[in-house]
Amino acid sequence: MTPGPDPLTINRLYGRAKGKPLRARQQSLVDTLLPAIAVPREGEVSSRTLFGDDRPLHFEIGFGGGEHMAARADMLPDHGFIGAEPFLNGVATALGHVEGDAEKPGLPNVRIHHGDALEVLARMPDASLSFVYLLHPDPWPKARHAKRRMMNDGPVGLIAAKLKPGGEFRFGTDHPIYVAHAMMVMRRHRDAFDWLADDAEAFLNRPGGWPETRYERKARTVYGHEVWYFRYRRRA
Questions:
Q1: Which residues are part of the catalytic machinery?
Q2: E strand or H helix at 231, and its extent?
Q3: pLDDT above 50 for 3
Q4: What is the dihedral of CA 129, 130, 135, 139, to 10 degrees?
Q5: Of 13, 27, 93, 218, which is most buried, counting CB atoms within 10 Å of its CB?
Q6: Is 73 helix (H, G, I), strand (E, B) or coil?
């Protein structure tokens, strides 16, 4: 059996909430645009409550600067995207993508939660998501901090509950300790997920439709790290 969600793991949030002061334009977006597209703090979170229809719904956990979320939302304008990020500076950067500019239109199919992704996931109906993304999360590499990793039984069990049968969970990292830990966790959830990999090439090369993030680019070009890409399909 797949381990059920662990409340001690689910209801804890670690890491920075804010970095350097926001620029004036970023602060303006946080003050004006964010309230207009924010996920409500209470009640059910679904396609109908956020977008007024039953469109396919995507959820990104910890979207960083929002470039992956924005690119996917631009690719799939008829789908709805929810991004959750506790770091205010990342939220401000993502709002710039959502707003658009004179050369590129905005993204009306995006909603943002400034805070804990798991709190939002817990308020979503089961089997309501088509995609969940977890890209380059904080690896918390020390063994004593392993319980802080997003790839743990509680969060993965919650993701499994919220994905539709046939829905996809995408996970990416450049940290070898996190790869080993994540694969161990996902083996415990074999009854919920099929790993979409036929050979090593399947997780060493970025799949089509998986936009590159700035963290991924930096890991590869600045630090010379290998990057791993994992795709899991929710079983019926």
A1: 138
A2: strand 228-234
A3: no
A4: 50
A5: 93
A6: helix
